[in-house]
């Protein structure tokens, strides 16, 4: 047997023995790996390491179109002791927990509008916030007229479950007084109206263009000289441009019609004409990346971040195709948002720091 053959044989023996050992000890190895994951994630509180300032966390950057990499519409704002959530798309609450945010400390949830993909995660959001912090009062859910109907529906749907939770875990873990949500409607804000002001934090609601969906609201958050604007779902909106003037961050929905048109053609070719018509219709009430970039330029914001991304992007290599000519319309940084991203705006600074928590 030559030297090369002996080396190959020895390598095969090592591999076979290694595979055998892995199989033999797979249970303790798996338990060890699980313990490491638990140690790294359970009890983590990312707010403890954040500087004083305004922080934007993307807990859901997807849309109604199925996307295994993105939860439904969901954004978190942290300002001092305040933790707010904007919209509660499916999977958003799960991502909040996985990102290491103390969901039991969520103080209030703001809704932009009542499309299903912005509210279908309300049940888990209310549940995890309730049991995660032994909440003593229902989750305040603020929004324009209509929020009462939405919250009442979720409370009714989860009433039996809430009873089971208290019966099983006890009133200390699941206090009956803290279950569910409490609607807090505000009047239609028109061009803009302050809907929350406390501890130096100001939240301004403003109407955007998502017709035929009405009302449709965006929000601006100002805290200690830093600012972030969340568009909600909208086409190009002059009112958004006005309210977003000189903001640090603009988190804007985006739809790339050239990519969606490819999906429409494929749906038609396979006889799925109903869904094809839906993909035609959605082009009418979302801003293209280029038009969102126009809004960012006209408002003079410092950075544009895309969320509620349509269509789903199977790989980051698709980001340039999604963005199209957006960079020609806005000269500042442009980011295609991903679930788990956090953007920090420290007080007394012009910095925009970012990292990924998922």
How would you characterize the overall build of this protein?
The protein is built from 13 helices and 15 strands. The strands form two sheets. It has an eight-stranded mixed sheet. The longest helix is centred in the first third of the chain and has 22 residues, at 3-24. The chain is an alpha/beta fold and 358 residues long. The protein starts with a helix and ends with a strand. A hairpin with a 2-residue loop joins strand 7 (193-198) and strand 8. The mean pLDDT is 93. Helix 9 runs antiparallel to helix 10 (273-281).
Summarize the structure.
Helices cover 36% and strands 24% of the residues. By secondary structure, the protein is of the alpha/beta class.
SSE arrangement:
Layout: H1 3-24, H2 26-41, E1 53-60, E2 74-79, E3 82-86, H3 92-98, E4 108-110, H4 116-119, H5 122-132, E5 139-143, H6 147-157, H7 159-169, E6 181-185, E7 193-198, E8 201-207, E9 217-223, E10 226-230, H8 238-243, E11 249-255, H9 257-269, H10 273-281, H11 289-299, E12 303-310, H12 319-323, H13 326-329, E13 334-336, E14 341-346, E15 353-356
Parallel strand pairs: 3-4, 4-5, 5-6, 10-11, 11-12, 12-13
Antiparallel strand pairs: 1-2, 1-14, 2-3, 7-8, 8-9, 9-10, 14-15
Helix pairs in contact: 9-10
Features:
seven-stranded mixed sheet; 13 helices; 36% helix; 358 residues
